[in-house]
Automatic annotation (TrEMBL):
Protein name: Anaphase-promoting complex subunit 4-like WD40 domain-containing protein
GO biological process: maturation of SSU-rRNA from tricistronic rRNA transcript (SSU-rRNA, 5.8S rRNA, LSU-rRNA)
UniProt keyword annotations, A-Z: WD repeat
Naturally occurring in which organism (per UniProt): Capsaspora owczarzaki (strain ATCC 30864)
InterPro entries noted in UniProt: Apc4-like_WD40_dom, Quinoprotein_ADH-like_sf, UTP4, WD40/YVTN_repeat-like_dom_sf, WD40_rpt
GO molecular function, one term: RNA binding
Domain Anaphase-promoting complex subunit 4-like WD40: 14-65
Stretches forming WD repeats: 9-50, 105-146
Cited Pfam families: ANAPC4_WD40, WD40
Organismal lineage: Eukaryota, Filasterea, Capsaspora
SMART domains in the cross-refs: WD40
GO cellular component: 90S preribosome; small-subunit processome; t-UTP complex
Length: 680
């Protein structure tokens, strides 16, 4: 089996600038440096549900959830709207829109860098670039208390403030100090030189007896109140500056930190020093790579651009060294970037797709879906592209895009939860499905529920079936022969993550969930397959169900379609559905257990080339055992390639693997704060 091991896709995760838990604690919003906001479902196994696209010069520095329309939540959002002139402005969101309310008369002599509401909603505490902390009375808009912090040769920046119900003010500043102040008189209660550089963020738990601080020195410090405030613990899980902290409300025992190194780190807040933290990598959970297998070309989606690559070729006349475990052929031609597309939109891309025939490229942003027709000269590695201007006007911006396997139709999961099907020969909108607009009673309403976008699409190899799934965990199956709704699949206990039809048996739909379970449906007969009924509940081993990595892609061995390959960012798993898996002991608690968690054309250079490995035996057969965990009847794990962005087959004798080594990602990070270490 020839393996195209690709590292030329320079996927660049963005730094995290803000974190915010929803009032229920079930959702976590993550703001990235490029303006994207990710919504993670904490309660459902840390599933990345959706991405709200940002754009040029749209960096989000802080966020507040609005749940209901109470004055408390309204004001919390308003304090996030501040400018460089030192004023605090209030906005009203009680009517579902952001409406200017008023501006406080008193101001800082510089920028306001931090702001916090008192729990009684009667006052606001601000920290500024003028070395002061101020408590402002909301009713009058006047400063009731002004605190001057320590300075050293220049102004001290108060980067973070919080206020407790007893009036105690906690601050973090550019001197590395964490300080506790009497909120009535402004006297200093406790001071800790907790950090060797700026304290950028802090968090206070609901009981107000624990405080966490962090900043430029990538140290996370914990303070506890035991009659007085004391330093209680520390952690250095990040490699670079920590920009944001968030504590989940009860009953979730969760602290999350994030920053320049792009990772989310999850801790147990109750057992901060004893329970090991968990790292959530920043790689995408939705498709950013698509291929045209017959042409050996690949489309890669970046935040604001698309790249079309031609895969490399190996020298097949080379005599392999049989002494090596995995023989490597010399490269006859490197991977070549054929095309780079930079849309004129100021917003980031939402979705993209490459037709299996290579004739079309589709992409979408917040304002619309675009279709491009390509003409590729492989001899000269030149691509001619022109926009298809007669795309139907009814086509909407998309959450997901998919071409049918024969490349004759474009399927659009629209922003309003409709599914639109465009015939690419006639350029007509041939059908719109609205089943995802239906409520729990099955009645189709006029408008889509804004919290239930369609995020999974799959089409069968014979072009007969289409499946789509939304965030309500509803999976609909449609017939593309008659353009009719066919079935609604039973809902699972845990959210599904990906759908795929088996090319060898086109009516069999495979569904993976956040609990790493795999279900197989016979959509024609509207029931689970025999293998799924026998193996889904008791066949998967406990260590597999407990893995934190989510399945982001499903594909099938073209030589044996009964071998299903489940891909995560850490590995891929081969499930042989022609065999029954060994029955597990009662310790196997099923999927619920997994939810627990504390630009010009040219050849690629030598470091980012398309490496073609030819194995002496198939990676799915003899070559598997060298890098796989113990076989469990019909289950094998392969962790040879990681971090793994994409895995699929080009044909029966070759496959493509796209990796993004973490060291390559770190090369784009800024330098870390210099710290003197023992022995250096």
């Amino acid at each position: 089996m020839e393996v195209h091991r690709c590292r030329f896709f320079e996927y660049a995760p963005q730094a995290v600038h803000g974190l915010a838990f929803s009032p229920s604690g079930q959702l976590l919003a993550v703001a990235r440096a490029d303006g994207d906001i990710e919504i993670w479902n904490v309660a459902n196994g840390w599933h990345l549900e959706r991405r709200l696209p940002g754009g040029d010069n749209m960096s989000v520095e802080s966020m507040v959830w609005v749940s209901g329309h109470t004055p408390r939540v309204c004001r919390a959002l308003c304090t996030d709207c501040r400018v460089d002139y030192g004023f605090v402005r209030l906005f009203d969101v009680s009517h579902g829109a952001l409406e200017y309310s008023r501006c406080f008369s008193d101001k800082h002599d510089g920028r306001i860098l931090s702001v916090a509401w008192h729990p009684d909603d009667l006052s606001i505490v601000t920290g500024g670039s003028d070395s002061t902390i101020r408590r402002i009375t909301v009713a009058s808009g006047r400063t009731a208390l002004r605190i001057s912090v320590e300075t050293q040769n220049e102004r001290t920046l108060v980067w973070a403030v919080r206020v407790m119900s007893d009036g105690t003010i906690v601050s973090g500043d550019s001197l590395g100090h964490t300080q506790f102040w009497n909120g009535q008189f402004g006297t200093l209660l406790h001071r800790f030189r907790s950090h060797s550089a700026d304290v950028l963020c802090l968090a206070v738990n609901a009981a107000e007896d624990t405080v966490y601080t962090s900043g430029v020195d990538n140290k996370l410090a914990q303070f506890r109140f035991v009659g007085k405030w004391v330093s209680a613990g520390k952690s250095r899980a990040h490699t670079h500056d920590i920009r944001a902290l968030a504590l989940a409300p009860a009953p979730f025992d969760i602290l999350v930190s994030a920053g320049v190194d792009t990772n989310l780190i999850v801790y147990s807040s109750a057992n901060f020093e004893t329970v090991r933290h968990v790292r959530l990598p920043p790689f995408p959970h939705t498709p950013v790579i698509s291929i045209a297998p017959a042409l050996k070309i690949m489309l890669c989606q970046h935040s604001s651009k698309l790249q079309l690559w031609r895969l490399g070729e190996a020298d097949r006349d080379h005599i392999l060294d049989s002494a090596t475990d995995v023989p490597q052929l010399p490269i006859a031609s490197n991977a070549v970037q054929l095309l780079e597309i930079q849309p004129k939109s100021a917003f980031n891309l939402v979705a993209s797709a490459l037709a299996p025939t290579g004739e079309f490229i589709a992409y979408s942003d917040l304002f619309g879906t675009k279709l491009l027709r390509t003409n590729i000269d492989f001899n000269a590695n030149i691509v001619q592209v022109r926009r298809v201007k007669n795309l139907p006007e009814e086509v909407l911006p998309a959450h997901r895009l998919l071409f049918t396997p024969d490349g004759s139709k474009l399927i659009i999961a629209a922003r309003n939860a409709n599914i639109q099907i465009v015939d690419l020969e006639s350029m007509q909108l041939v059908r719109t499905f609205s089943q995802h607009l239906a409520g729990d009673d099955g009645v189709i309403e006029d408008e889509a529920d804004p919290i239930t976008p369609i995020f999974t699409l799959a089409a069968s190899a014979d072009g007969q079936w289409l499946a789509s799934g939304d965030l309500r965990n509803r999976i609909h199956v449609f017939s593309l022969d008659g353009f009719q709704h066919h079935a609604l699949l039973p809902q699972f206990d845990s959210q599904h993550t990906v759908l795929a039809f088996n090319p060898g048996n086109p009516s069999h739909l495979y569904v993976a969930t956040v609990g790493n379970q795999l279900y197989a449906f016979d959509v024609e007969r509207k029931r689970l397959t025999d293998w799924s009924r026998k193996n889904t509940d008791s066949g998967f081993p406990y260590h597999w169900l407990r893995r934190r990595e989510k399945i982001v892609h499903i594909t099938f061995d073209p030589r044996n379609s009964s071998k299903v390959i489940l891909q995560s960012h850490a590995l891929f798993c081969v499930v042989d559905v022609s065999r029954n898996m060994k029955q597990q002991k009662k310790a196997n608690k099923g999927p619920a257990a997994a939810a627990a968690l504390p630009g010009t054309n040219g050849s690629a250079n030598a470091e980012s080339m398309d490496v073609s490995n030819t194995m002496a035996a198939s990676v799915l057969a003899a070559g598997l055992s060298s890098s796989a965990e113990t076989d469990n009847g019909g289950l094998q794990l392969v962790d040879k390639y990681k971090p793994l962005l994409f895995f699929d087959f080009l044909d029966a004798s070759s496959m493509v693997v796209v990796e993004r080594p973490w060291l390559a990602v770190m090369e784009s990070f800024p330098p870390t704060l210099y710290r003197v270490r023992y022995g250096t």
